[in-house]
Amino acid sequence: MNIFLTGSTGFLGGELLASLSKRKEVDKIYCFIRPGNEQDAFTRLKKVFSVHGDYLDSNKVIPVTGNLFDPHLTQSLQANKMLDDVDVIIHSAANTSFSRIYDDMLEQVNIAGLEKLLLWAKQLPHLHTFLYVGTATICGTDITHRSVREEESPNMNAQHLVRYTYTKMQGELLIDKYIPQEKILIARPSIIMGDSRNVTPRSPVILWAVATINQLRLIPVNEQAMLDMIPVDYAATSIIELLLAKRNHKVYHISSGQQGATSAHKLSISLAEYFNELPPFHFTNKLLLTQIKLWAKSRLKPDSELFNYGLYLDYWNKEFTDPGAIRILLAGLAPYLEFMELGQAFDNSRLLIDVPCVKQSIPAEVYIKNCMNFISKINILDGAIDP
Ligand SMILES: NC(=O)c1ccc[n+]([C@@H]2O[C@H](COP(=O)([O-])OP(=O)(O)OC[C@H]3O[C@@H](n4cnc5c(N)ncnc54)[C@H](OP(=O)(O)O)[C@@H]3O)[C@@H](O)[C@H]2O)c1
């Protein structure tokens, strides 16, 4: 199997790369990678392998420099004859930001960039599978407090909380336009958070939100709402096993499902055990978020409900001496809180039935215990400033 992998420097893509490189079924992995500001593509690849001390076999793992922004991307991939033996494409690269400032970039990378890749892929002589890493959250905001099935998406009428999920939905639709149905495989992970192994997770993404919630302690979100979260090692292993399995469907959730879902309440118990010097967690109605924002701007009316939570206001005043800090943190956290309110779990029975070697994921409130040291080191303000 000769794989063309995009996004290998990312959170999930890095894990896919390191795991794929250990599989005997895989002959070559061409890593589509953009050079960094100070590092060339190969140095960036070496870094991916060094995170967990994995071995980089340079006969097997080959960097292919490029950028999804490049207007000539299709042509330059076509001109690269080395890539003619590619039979599997795994498209994991994406702009994953929830921030509105990136709306234009999200379209450029997640839709236009994908289309350039598809124009090349459809002409490949040996293409067997185009594996698109989508996201289960494309189901939108109308489905709440229940399990979501794969066939409910893509839904053109779905309302999206952020542009990111809209662009990922459009991505799925675009693939149908260029690639025959039998060659398409769509893996839709739920929320990927941390790593279940006792290792440093590849990325603070999502764990940043957990670290921020842990630091704030008074959180305007429904603590009982289901949260479908999986660790990155589980996500990568499941996707690889799915790729290698005999499948009965085109689309699969890679998720905890309702039976393995966590909640803000369950996560807070694990966090409180480790970070026991902070005030106790308290969850309130989401409407309190507006009051917290006004409080952070010193514009909250004196008779407001938030003043009943003096313990937390005193703690915030001590902890965040710059009042702007709370505003910045809340701006970053707001979309995560909205996702948390939805109470969605993503049905994983297709995956568990078709790929029997993949078992139910470990609940997030259990494996998060391996991430506590990492969470304690996350600079939540830096993460909020660079979403
Ligand atoms: N993380 C989650 O919770 C989650 C959940 C569900 C689905 N997913 C999906 O999983 C996939 C991987 O997500 P992730 O968390 O690994 O994301 P990530 O850590 O943000 O990584 C994104 C990857 O895409 C690459 N990329 C971005 N823009 C590019 C461009 N213009 N040209 C070439 N490469 C570009 C990045 O390269 P650089 O290193 O050069 O920036 C990086 O390798 C995405 O498709 C995402 O939608 C993620």
SSE order and pairing:
Blueprint: E1 2-6, H1 11-20, E2 28-33, H2 41-50, E3 61-65, H3 73-79, E4 88-91, H4 103-121, E5 129-133, E6 146-148, H5 163-178, E7 184-189, E8 191-192, H6 207-216, E9 218-219, E10 226-227, E11 229-230, H7 232-244, E12 251-254, H8 257-260, E13 262-263, H9 264-274, E14 282-283, H10 288-296, H11 310-319, H12 323-342, E15 344-346, H13 349-354, H14 364-367, H15 372-377, H16 380-385
Parallel strand pairs: 1-2, 1-4, 2-3, 4-5, 5-7, 6-15, 7-12, 8-11, 9-14
Antiparallel strand pairs: 10-13
This protein binds NADP nicotinamide-adenine-dinucleotide phosphate (NAP).
Structure notes:
The chain has a domain at 2-203 and 228-261 and 344-363: NAD(P)-binding Rossmann-like Domain (Rossmann fold), CATH 3.40.50.720. Strand 2, helix 2 and strand 3 form a beta-alpha-beta unit. The radius of gyration is 21 Å and the shape is globular. Helices cover 42% and strands 14% of the residues. The strands form five sheets. Strands 3-2-1-4-5-7-12 form a seven-stranded parallel sheet, with helices on both faces. It is built from 16 helices and 15 strands. The chain is an alpha/beta fold and 387 residues long. Helix 1 crosses helix 7 and helix 3 (73-79) packs parallel to helix 4. Bound molecules: NADP nicotinamide-adenine-dinucleotide phosphate. NADP nicotinamide-adenine-dinucleotide phosphate binds next to helix 1, helix 4 and strand 8.
Keywords, separated by commas or semicolons:
binds NADP nicotinamide-adenine-dinucleotide phosphate, 387 residues, alpha/beta, Rossmann fold, two-stranded parallel ribbon, seven-stranded parallel β-sheet
